[in-house]
Amino acid sequence: MRIMAVFDIRSFKYKEEHHFLIDANVWLDVFGPIPRSRRSGAYTTAMQDMRVKKSKIHLDVLVLSEFINRYARILYQIELLKYPGLSDEEKPKYKQFRDSQEFKLVAEEIRIVTKDIINTATVCCSPDFNCDKANAFTDVFGRDCVDFNDQIIADSCKTKNLLLVTDDGDFQNYEDISILTANPRAIS
Question: Does CATH number 3.30.390.80 belong to domain 5-187?
């Protein structure tokens, strides 16, 4: 497999004609409840530059779903810190947390942040997905243990000619997509 290009997000020159698909990990770095990495500032600055240059920021429903679910899981992990004396078996399970009164506040926080993301994006898109692609992605998942959602995101970037903005080093192995990142392992 070959990748088209990996660009360092800190030195990339944004243009109006650029189209970007922002991965969930970058949305979490910019809009998440806690900074995920030391590179959060680079992604925040890049997204500001994209907006100033009027680049097109695409939002994929799969990415948004990943963001929402991971945001909730992060807040669940924070909630578990309230129970330092309990064993893991005694602490509330995620489903119990989702059914609790505390989760109503979490859901409202996620709703507000998700609206900010939707308003930041300039184009909403969905992956082109059919049974043939589902079968192919499932085969790759089973054979090569490649993340199913990552395959869909990479395919969407390839078919729609989008630059993928991600902090995930796993995307280096995809054909015919270009990546914009601050992850030094992916750049080198």
Answer: no
